[in-house]
């Protein structure tokens, strides 16, 4: 080689240096400190911290519970997701009905993490209206069942989105071929559709397993003392007992299954894909029934679940406008008045932090995604991997690692806004990076070469040609970043301070003080803020997409 | 102001999985100022990679590239002062035609008035004066290619590089555009390299053609030389259609050879620079349109039976099985009332000594 890419592109070196420096500071360094806190006792390598945790019956139970909960949630959520995906992609439903099913499943995706927990508490907890309705006087809802139900409802939309994409990508000709060879619809499903969707199912199982394993908010509200899980145990260890080392050891235990799932997903499921997109597919024939009984089962399940989700959201809304739930059901605006007076700072702080983290994280995603996809420099694969790390790890782990790393000099950040913004940026820019990489795959490199051959330098090419073309992807990534900056709790619960108050932590405070009405009011305000911002950014994305594909399509 | 271009022993080695692939192998070429040279070859022969190295998109593994006598091997593409026209046009989809053409001028920092004038002139040159405000996806393929050409030409590059610019156009438009491109290139007198796999394009447009195969140069010459004096069997076979028949050298004379084919001895031209030894094998190359058919005759070099005959309007095509078990192809111009031969008939084919050429039989095909 007579010249490396670095020599030919003078702007690349400072960009690479900046990315690596920030990744080292906000991804690798905290994890390294977490590792040290777990394994270094009085300057000596030791398993003492880990042994303490493993010898504690309660902590061991938390580990087992976490794995058991994650397994059951991933199985139930994937089943529900498959049923929904099958209904939307295979059953001859009117399009408005399909749209409704899809829209309802997006509700849990963009809601704050407590929504279903609060609503379930109000329905099935003490004095719950469903309990009264069904005449179940002393049903104990707290513990495994409550947590399982709430997490399944919260995470099955992820499975639905994954599986709907897989199912609609299976060429309809394959199923038609099965039918034309004399197989019954049930047999075609068993021998063609299901085997082809197995990689999608595996992917969905892993995604849900990881989500449930990392979930902090639901077990905090619903699991109670009888059903300890790792994220809440680690939290209580640190905030209740001020035992940073114990918390570190617990979060290290949590790290092991999370990393295992991450690797399985990246290197095993990611490579298995039967679905091929060929040029000629033909349209899906409309006359195709899955059998009367199966169809009724699928539709019945969808309607029941959809109705239940809508019911839960109306409970939140109702809970926000009554005086005392289940006791004094007269309407009042006091709760919202409370939110806009006592909760005003939380609202403005949350919005400010999200508004700062979103553009910064978007910019980071663009640069990382661009370098990873377009520049063939040593280490770009490692860079992409590391930038996804905070996203793949449970929020509790990231939060504890940040507390340990940034609680003392030389990098003292606890209590500042910087640490919150950094936590959001480096955790939730992952969706943006993926979107940018996917969008760059679609853009022929010759467009950028054309710019270079017309005399433009790499910076000009990047800002004048590349960026305008990937704006839709960036906006999508920024929307994700914004939603999660508004609704995150698991990492940030460790990072909030007196100076910076957040809506999600305020909801949690209300819950622990049994102020359900105020919790509902906060939730409604948060959901409306997120909805408004999401609608705005979706509109912007659509405009940007139209500008590119409407007036100047890609060749 | 046209410039010269020089490639000296340029190689490109790619790492593919574990293997090293020699995509371009020691290519040397001198291009005169204002000359148009075509790189011709099958896909994967290294012609596009060579062009991309001249542009500066790829870095040669070895060798040097000079423009106007100045070594540019390590100069980045945006400082080489070249113009590159892409196979897929590569217009910026988010910019209007005007902004696309103005792009390079804005990089140079020209005044808005100059830009307006030059863009107007450029679009006028390619016949798209009225399309300024439109966007690339509102143009047909041919119009898009003209915009791509105008975008490059307004910069008055020292060297114009084109990578199969017409391959995405339909056949009629392709023929129109190749004369158009040649007209503009001559009008501006710009040095030009042009990559194609279409021999018709290469023959009609070029001052010289460089035929490539498997990363190596097979032959460089004018279209006439390439067609009538193919240096290798690959060139003979790739350009036009050719009958290649094994023969034995009976006598070596000044510029001609006596070859024996199936017992008959004929005189043919020896290829330039080829060395032949009496008694050894050689390959006779004769093009189908240079063979004339007659009823079975004693003195004709080929005699055989007609296997297939195809009527193509302007000519008849015959496949004739000759004695050695090979088939040869003959094109016979057709006019009404002319004698034609049917399948199964015996026929002889003869050729003029000046139109056939003998190549050394390197590939050992006569054995």
Features of the shown structure:
heterodimer; A: 555 residues; mainly alpha; MetI-like fold; two-stranded antiparallel ribbon; 4 strands; globular; B: alpha+beta; 5-stranded mixed beta barrel; 8 helices; 20 strands; 23% helix
Layout of helices and strands:
The complex is a heterodimer of chains A (555) and B (367).
Chain A: H1 5-8, H2 12-39, E1 40-41, E2 44-45, H3 48-55, H4 57-90, H5 95-110, H6 115-124, H7 129-134, H8 144-169, H9 172-180, H10 185-214, H11 217-222, H12 230-239, H13 244-267, H14 292-321, E3 322-324, E4 328-331, H15 334-341, H16 344-374, H17 380-392, H18 395-405, H19 417-428, H20 430-442, H21 445-453, H22 458-487, H23 503-512, H24 516-551
Antiparallel strand pairs in A: 1-2, 3-4
Chain B: E1 5-16, E2 19-31, E3 36-40, H1 47-55, E4 62-67, E5 70-71, E6 82-85, H2 97-108, H3 112-125, H4 141-153, E7 159-163, H5 171-188, E8 191-196, H6 199-205, E9 208-213, E10 216-221, H7 223-228, H8 233-238, E11 243-252, E12 256-261, E13 264-270, E14 281-286, E15 292-295, E16 302-311, E17 315-322, E18 327-333, E19 346-350, E20 357-360
Parallel strand pairs in B: 3-8, 3-9, 6-7, 7-8, 13-20
Antiparallel strand pairs in B: 1-2, 1-4, 4-5, 9-10, 11-12, 11-14, 12-13, 14-20, 15-19, 16-17, 16-19, 17-18
Walkthrough of the structure:
The complex is a heterodimer of chains A (555) and B (367). Chain A is mostly helical and 555 residues long. Chain A folds into two domains: 1-35 and 354-498, MetI-like fold (Orthogonal Bundle); 51-164 and 196-275 and 294-322, MetI-like fold. Chain A contains 24 helices and four strands. Chain A has a two-stranded antiparallel ribbon with strand order 1-2. In chain A, strands 3-4 form a two-stranded antiparallel sheet. In chain A, strand 3 and strand 4 form a beta hairpin. In chain A, 45% of the residues are buried. Chain B has 367 residues and is α+β, with helices and mostly antiparallel strands. In chain B, the strands form four sheets. A six-stranded mixed sheet of chain B has the order 6-7-8-3-9-10, with helices on both faces. In chain B, helix 2 (97-108) packs across helix 3, helix 2 runs parallel beside helix 4 and helix 3 (112-125) crosses helix 4. Chain B is elongated, with a radius of gyration of 25 Å. The termini of chain B are far apart. The interface between A and B is large, with 31 and 41 residues.
């Amino acid at each position: 080689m007579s010249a490396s890419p670095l020599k030919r592109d003078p702007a690349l070196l400072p960009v690479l240096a900046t990315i690596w420096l920030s990744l080292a500071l906000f991804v690798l360094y905290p994890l390294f400190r977490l590792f040290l806190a777990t394994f270094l006792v009085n300057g000596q390598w030791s398993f003492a911290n880990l042994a303490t945790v493993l010898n504690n019956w309660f902590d061991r139970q938390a580990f087992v519970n976490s794995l058991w909960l994650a397994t059951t949630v991933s199985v139930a959520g994937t089943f529900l997701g498959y049923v929904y995906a099958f209904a939307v992609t295979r059953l001859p439903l009117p399009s408005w009905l399909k749209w409704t099913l899809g829209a309802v499943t997006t509700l849990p995706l963009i809601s704050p993490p407590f929504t279903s927990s609060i609503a379930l508490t109000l329905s099935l907890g003490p004095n719950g209206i469903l309990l009264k309705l069904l005449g179940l006087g002393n049903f104990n809802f707290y513990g495994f069942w409550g947590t399982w139900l709430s997490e399944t409802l919260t995470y099955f939309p992820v499975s639905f989105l994954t599986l709907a994409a897989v199912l609609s990508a299976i060429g309809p000709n394959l199923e038609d071929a099965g039918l034309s060879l004399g197989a019954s619809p049930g047999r075609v499903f068993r021998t063609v559709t299901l085997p082809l969707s197995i990689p999608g199912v595996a992917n969905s199982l892993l995604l849900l397993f990881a989500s449930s394993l990392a979930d902090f908010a639901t077990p905090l509200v619903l699991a109670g003392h009888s059903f300890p899980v790792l994220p809440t145990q680690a939290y209580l260890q640190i905030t209740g007992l001020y035992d940073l080392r114990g918390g570190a050891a617990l979060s290290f235990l949590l790290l092991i299954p999370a990393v295992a799932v991450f690797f399985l997903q990246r290197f095993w499921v990611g490579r298995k894909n039967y679905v091929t997109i060929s040029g000629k597919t033909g349209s899906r024939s409309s006359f195709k029934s899955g059998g009367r009984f199966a169809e009724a089962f699928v539709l019945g399940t969808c309607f029941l679940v959809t109705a239940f989700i809508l019911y839960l959201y109306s409970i939140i809304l109702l809970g926000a406008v009554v005086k005392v739930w289940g006791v004094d059901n007269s309407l009042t605006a006091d709760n919202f008045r409370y939110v806009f007076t006592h909760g005003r700072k939380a609202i403005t702080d949350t919005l400010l932090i999200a508004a700062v983290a979103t553009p910064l994280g978007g910019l980071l995603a663009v640069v990382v995604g661009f370098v990873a996809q377009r520049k063939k420099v040593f280490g770009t694969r490692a860079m992409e991997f590391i930038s996804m790390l905070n996203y793949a790890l449970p929020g509790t782990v990231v939060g504890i690692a940040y507390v340990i790393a940034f609680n003392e000099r030389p990098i003292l950040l606890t209590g500042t806004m910087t640490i919150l913004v950094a936590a959001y940026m480096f955790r939730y820019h992952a969706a943006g990076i993926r979107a940018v990489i996917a969008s760059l795959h679609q853009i022929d490199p010759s467009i950028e070469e054309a710019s270079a051959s017309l005399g433009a330098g790499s910076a000009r090419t990047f800002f004048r040609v590349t960026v305008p073309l990937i704006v839709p992807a960036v906006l999508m990534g920024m929307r994700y970043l914004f939603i999660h900056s508004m609704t995150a709790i698991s990492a940030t619960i460790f990072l909030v301070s007196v100076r910076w108050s957040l809506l999600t932590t305020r909801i949690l405070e209300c819950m622990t003080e049994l102020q359900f009405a105020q919790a509902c009011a906060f939730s409604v305000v948060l959901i409306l803020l997120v909805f408004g911002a999401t609608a705005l950014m979706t509109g912007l994305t659509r405009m940007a997409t139209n500008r590119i594909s409407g007036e100047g399509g890609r060749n | 102001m046209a410039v010269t271009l020089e490639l000296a022993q340029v190689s490109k080695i790619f790492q593919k999985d574990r293997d090293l692939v020699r995509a371009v192998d020691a290519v040397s070429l001198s291009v005169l100022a204002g000359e148009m040279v075509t790189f011709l070859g099958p896909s994967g022969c290294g012609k596009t990679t060579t062009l991309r190295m001249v542009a500066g998109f790829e870095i040669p593994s070895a060798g040097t590239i000079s423009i106007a006598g100045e070594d540019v091997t390590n100069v980045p593409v945006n400082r080489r002062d070249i113009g590159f026209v892409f196979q897929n046009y590569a217009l910026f989809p988010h910019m209007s035609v005007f902004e696309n053409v103005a792009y390079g001028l804005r990089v140079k920092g020209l005044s808005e008035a100059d830009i307006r004038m030059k863009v107007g002139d450029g679009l006028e040159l390619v016949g798209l004066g009225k399309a300024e405000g439109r966007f690339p996806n509102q143009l047909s393929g041919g119009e898009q290619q003209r915009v791509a050409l105008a975008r490059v030409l307004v910069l008055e590059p020292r060297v114009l590089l084109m990578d199969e610019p017409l391959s995405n156009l339909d056949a009629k438009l392709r023929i129109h555009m190749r004369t158009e491109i040649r007209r503009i290139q001559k009008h501006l007198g710009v040095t030009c390299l042009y990559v194609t796999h279409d021999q018709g394009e290469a023959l009609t447009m070029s001052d010289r053609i460089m035929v490539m195969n498997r990363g190596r140069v097979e032959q460089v010459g004018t279209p006439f030389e390439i067609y009538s004096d193919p240096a290798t069997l690959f060139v003979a076979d790739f350009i036009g259609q050719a009958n290649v028949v094994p023969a034995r050298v009976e006598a070596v004379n000044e510029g001609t050879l006596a070859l024996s084919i199936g017992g008959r001895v004929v005189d043919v031209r020896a290829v330039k620079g080829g060395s032949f030894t009496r008694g050894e094998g050689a390959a006779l190359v004769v093009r189908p349109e240079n063979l004339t058919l007659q009823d079975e005759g004693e003195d004709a070099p080929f005699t055989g039976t007609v296997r297939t005959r195809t009527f193509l309007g302007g000519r008849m095509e015959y496949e004739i099985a000759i004695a050695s078990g090979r088939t040869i192809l003959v094109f016979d111009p057709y006019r009404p009332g002319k004698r034609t031969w049917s399948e199964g008939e015996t026929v002889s084919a003869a050729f003029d000594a000046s139109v056939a050429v003998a190549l050394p039989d390197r590939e050992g095909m006569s054995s």
